[in-house]
Amino acid sequence: MGRINHFAVLLAVVLQQVVGFVWYHLLFGPAWLAGLGMTPDQMQGRQWRFAVAIGCGLLSAYGLAWLMAATGRRGLGQGLALGLFTGIAFAGSAVLLHYAFIPAIWPAAWIDAGVTVAAALVTGAMLGLWPKRGA
């Protein structure tokens, strides 16, 4: 953990939440809810899930930061590349795997997988642009 810029990790988590807000509220919200068979009213009272999102964001950001430090990756290009790879290979594929076993419409699965990859890209970019000094 000594080679990780903790401020960059925290900023990446904030940016992940911004990506999620834009993704679900401005871009794909109605299609996502339709895919889940839910209405906006059914989403009320679920604010505790934001704590889960932040916790998972910290876990994924620290994991990507560790991976970048362990492999010597730095800079925007390498951060984006590693974010894209981990977003698709690990996170996005896991989302799609879980949707294969629940009764949901596939557009919701692709929307969820897409935001996961987008968040990994933003995280990789932040960590690549702002590595720990002297690392």
Overall radius of gyration: 16 Å
Distance, first to last CA: 11 Å
Multimer state: single chain
- Tertiary shape: elongated
Largest sheet properties: none
Count the E strands. 0
Structural class by secondary-structure content:
mainly alpha
Element string (H = helix, E = strand):
HHHHH
Mean pLDDT: 93
Low-pLDDT regions: none
Strand content: under 5%
| Percent helix range | over 70%
Count of runs of 4 or more consecutive helical residues: 5
Key structural traits:
single chain; 135 residues; mainly alpha; 5 helices; 76% helix; 0% strand
Describe the structure in your own words:
The longest helix is centred in the middle third of the chain and has 25 residues, at 75-99. The protein has 135 residues and is mainly alpha-helical. It has 5 helices and no strands. It has helices at 6-27, 29-36, 49-71, 75-99, 106-129. Helix 1 (6-27) runs antiparallel to helix 5 (106-129), helix 2 (29-36) packs across helix 5 (106-129) and helix 3 packs across helix 5. The protein is elongated and about 50 Å long.
